[in-house]
Write a structure and sequence with these properties.
about 300 residues, Rossmann fold
Length: about 300
């Protein structure tokens, strides 16, 4: 019998729905699926309050992680691990980082084939690069990646995602579409579990090759890559500044957060539209380069 471990941290519950769909056609009498949620020692709220949300920003951007509970009664002979995660400030969520840096992860992931499963808005490439490093540090072998993204693409998500996280409201409003991943896309994630079920029964996970190719597992928008890189650097710098201004929940830190959010709002309404226009012009002359980058970041699963 094959043994599959599925690990995830879901704050809003959306990723749990994705995980449930993913595994719905995976387990049977020949394949046992062990599903475990990662639990922070100090639980994160949902929805967030404004200052709680941005108070976590420096730690997320700097990949500090948080303290998590040890997961009990895990085995040490899993044939494959599925790691589900969401994106916090263009990085994997703090509970995922905290777990991946734990001694338990080092023992659990060593020499194991891993599939990453992402649920997020349309900017996940830099976060996945960071997860690749975390997996490499514990000796794991990434063989596949699946990324499901929100229905509200691009500029719309600057409004829909914060509204969802800070109020819990996902419905459409004014000119904006609903937040989150389409339910039909979540339901369709079962196709990955079905393919995986067939592959495991043929021992294909032992070949260190992708198992989910040609299923539409990932689709990178090359036009967003430069924006992700710039934003990641900006988050890192501002994270340092906010950390320098004080500890979590301190008054001085709240002042720094207020200044940063004002700066961020001005960026969204001024420089971001200009950057989009400039990028459209530059991208017209860099089509081949963008295709190369898309292919690079879509590995290992491809489209």
């Amino acid at each position: 019998m094959k043994k599959i471990l599925v690990l995830y941290y879901s704050q809003s519950g959306q990723l749990k729905s994705v995980v449930d769909s993913f595994i719905s056609k995976l387990g049977d009498k020949d394949i046992k699926v062990d599903v475990r949620g990662i639990e922070p020692v100090v639980a994160y709220p949902y929805p967030w309050s404004f200052y709680e949300f941005f108070d976590e920003f420096p730690d997320a951007a700097h990949m500090k992680g948080c303290e998590v509970h040890e997961i009990k009664n895990l085995q040490d002979d899993y044939d494959l691990i599925v790691l589900g995660y969401t994106i916090w400030f263009l990085a994997p969520s703090s509970p995922i980082v905290g777990f991946m840096k734990s001694n338990q992860a080092k023992k659990l992931f060593e020499n194991k084939p891993v599939i990453t499963l992402i649920a997020c808005r349309d900017m996940w490439v830099m976060a996945q690069e960071k997860v690749k490093k975390l997996l490499s540090d514990v000796g794991a072998k990434l063989i596949d990646n699946v990324a499901l993204t929100d229905q509200g693409k691009g500029i719309y998500s600057f409004a829909t995602t914060p509204r969802w996280l800070l109020s819990g409201k996902k419905d459409a409003f004014w000119i904006f579409p609903p937040a989150g991943i389409l339910q039909s896309d979540i339901d369709d994630a079962s196709r990955f579990g079905h393919r995986l079920n067939e592959a495991l029964k043929s021992d294909k996970e032992k070949r260190d090759e992708p198992l989910l190719k040609n299923l539409g597992a990932v689709s990178v928008n090359g036009k967003l890559i430069a924006s992700e890189i710039i934003a990641t650097r900006s988050f890192y710098i501002w994270g340092k500044i906010i950390n320098f201004c004080g500890k979590k929940k301190s008054f001085s830190r709240k002042i720094a957060i207020t200044v940063y959010t004002i700066f961020l709002a001005l960026m969204v309404f001024t420089l971001v539209p200009i950057n989009i226009l400039v990028r459209k012009i530059l991208n017209y002359f860099q089509k081949d380069r963008l295709k190369e980058l898309e292919k690079k970041y879509e590995e290992p699963s491809g489209r």
